[in-house]
Write a structure and sequence with these properties.
Helix content: under 10%
Largest sheet: 4 strands, antiparallel
Structural class: mainly beta
Shape: globular
Order of helices and strands: EEEEEEEEEE
Radius of gyration: 15 Å
Strand content: 35-45%
Number of strands: 10
Number of helices: 0
Distance between the termini: 23 Å
């Protein structure tokens, strides 16, 4: 995956991918579904930023507790995640589920992250940032 941009002044910007999105031929589209990743310990991936990019990105994992499609949260989208500082050279990163935390100060507060019903992975940049992010070989790890 690659995304780049600047000038986002309201919410920032990001890129992500649903983990489980089976195709429904009747609706002629992929449907967002949960995935049970509880037999794993986290994610690994290779990543880098381009020259001139902000190095700080938030890696986050929307799940049934924080995503509006889970239909359990009232103030949604405060996903469990971890802020990472990336370099301009390719490096391998591993983010354990035990490291994931919600951002402070907003959204429904969930006691702990559950990997039993995850929806996606996302990489997000704060508003006002210039970014150029490259990600490869995203995988679940034991």
């Amino acid at each position: 995956m690659r995304t780049r941009g600047s000038g986002f002044s309201n919410w920032g910007a990001g890129i992500g991918s649903n983990i489980n999105a089976p195709y429904d031929p009747d609706q002629m589209k992929s449907l967002k579904s949960t995935y049970d990743a509880s037999s794993y310990g986290g994610f690994s991936f290779w990543a880098r930023v381009g020259s001139g990019s902000t190095p700080t990105v938030r890696f986050q994992v929307p799940n049934v507790d924080t995503d509006p499609d889970g239909k359990t949260c009232k103030e949604c989208n405060n996903h469990f995640g971890k802020n990472l500082t990336l370099g301009t050279k390719w490096n391998k990163y591993t983010v354990r589920f035990s490291e994931l935390r919600q951002a402070a100060g907003w959204g429904d507060r969930i006691a702990s992250f559950s990997a039993t019903k995850i929806f996606a992975v996302q990489f997000q940049f704060d508003k006002g940032q210039t970014f150029d992010l490259w990600v490869d070989d995203l995988a679940l790890v034991k």
